[in-house]
Design a protein that fits this description.
Length: 424
């Protein structure tokens, strides 16, 4: 009896074992197949690093190549990161232009936070630019239990770029400025003393923390990815237009994110994502007000609510159209003509130059009111009236339309000022 049961058990084991082996082989084959497909889709020639015209002098090219390969090995994560970057690149480039610094500095948030405005390091650095609390306060950022402007992409960007400008003016070398940004000016000054007064990254590198030693190779790798992601076969996950066509409203009274969500019709999570500087889920009551970031399509509705305490349906939607450039112009001239942000125009159309050739077709995204478009297409018959009576709904519609015109005018003025700066 025992022998029969033992034979039965052994037979079952013999049946299970081949099945288990086959399952393991199948899994191994599928994993390797997916790896081969990924390798075919995204390939990188390490020799390209030597030919790459980096913003900085090449440092440890082998390590730069390994970092690039690491970005490609985790291609899905890299594409998601680039998608987040496309929310912030226009903002960062605009501020770099304003402060007269190189456009390539926009890459720094990749190695600092992977474009996560809520990132917190083990030593307490916060935000896209990983700013420490004392440095943030010195740069004028508000940091308290209600608000942390190190998490605010716009305000943190202004502060971080100003800090980079100060560091470059101090060291007159971007590699040293980057090292000071990462490790602090005191650490870099000490490394310069240990290097006998030599003021080059190569000379002071042995006296820097290992993280700072690797900072420049990481930066060059990140710059390579940003400039060549299309050739590398990467497809970033682009953000929705609600994250691209944004503006701000100054709010002086206490409002929860839930209140804002109900008034605007936006998901609460979207309002939160646009305003990561709010730490407690509400806008505090501040004398100078708080700059609440919202999609431009809901700003007239929200401002009407602030003025009247009355909520209205939001009439505005997005539409996309193609525009053919009649003759060669700068991106700023075309943007001013179309009343769009030149930096958004650049990313919508994969433009790498400030000049747009005549005959080139551009993709444009804009706001419009479908109800007004319908009226324009099929105007109602004119009727003679003895007295003009303005209904409440007409007042609301007129107010919102007027506000949208004001927003567009303000944007055009900003573009005109940008064009003036670029010409001078």
């Amino acid at each position: 009896m025992l022998s029969r049961e033992l034979m039965k058990t052994n037979r079952c084991s013999m049946i299970k074992l081949p099945f288990l082996q086959a399952w393991i082989l199948l899994c191994f084959f599928l994993v390797n197949l997916s790896w081969v497909k990924a390798s075919d889709a995204i390939s990188f020639d390490a020799a390209a690093v030597s030919a790459f015209n980096s913003f900085l002098d090449p440092v440890d090219e082998d390590r730069v190549a390994r970092y690039i390969e690491d970005f490609l090995k985790h291609s899905q994560s890299t594409e998601e990161m680039l998608g987040r970057g496309f929310r912030y690149f226009p903002l960062i480039e605009k501020e770099l232009s304003r402060q007269g610094l190189p456009e390539q500095l926009k890459v720094i948030p990749i190695i600092e936070s992977r474009f996560n405005p809520s990132a917190v390091s083990r030593v307490g650095a916060v935000g896209l630019w990983q700013i420490m609390m004392p440095t943030g306060r010195e740069l004028g950022l508000m940091i308290n239990r209600h608000i942390d402007e190190r998490r605010d992409p716009a305000k943190a960007t202004v502060a971080a770029i100003e800090y980079l400008r100060i560091l470059y003016e101090r060291y007159q070398d971007w590699t040293l400025a980057f090292a000071a940004y990462n490790a602090g000016p005191g650490t870099v000054n000490r490394a310069i003393r240990y290097a006998g007064g030599e003021r080059s990254f190569k000379a002071i590198k042995p006296f820097l923390p290992r993280e700072t030693q690797l900072y420049i190779p990481k930066y060059i790798a990140a710059q390579y990815i940003v400039e060549h992601y299309l050739e590398l076969g990467m497809t970033p996950l682009y953000p929705s237009l609600d994250f691209q066509l944004t503006g701000h409203v100054v709010v002086h009274k206490y409002l929860t994110l839930e209140d804002i969500s109900q008034v605007t019709g936006l998901p609460k999570d979207l309002v939160s994502d646009l305003n990561p500087g709010l730490r407690r889920g509400y806008v505090p009551s501040l004398t100078k007000g708080y700059d609440l970031v919202l999609p431009k399509r809901v700003i007239p509705t929200f401002e009407y609510f602030l003025a009247t305490n009355e909520a209205l349906p939001n009439p505005f939607e997005y539409r996309t159209y193609e525009h053919v450039v009649d003759e060669s112009k700068s991106i700023y001239e075309v943007a001013s003509q179309l009343s769009v942000d030149p930096y958004l125009l650049k990313y919508w159309n994969y433009l790498s130059s400030d000049m747009i050739n005549g005959g080139q077709t551009l993709m444009i995204h804009e706001l419009f009111d479908p109800s007004q478009a319908a009226v324009e297409e099929e105007p109602p018959p004119m009727e003679k009236v003895d007295e003009l009576i303005i209904l409440p709904n007409q007042i609301k519609a007129g107010w919102m339309e007027s506000r949208l015109v004001q927003i567009e005018k303000q944007r055009q003025e900003e573009h005109a000022w940008q064009l003036h700066q670029d010409r001078h």
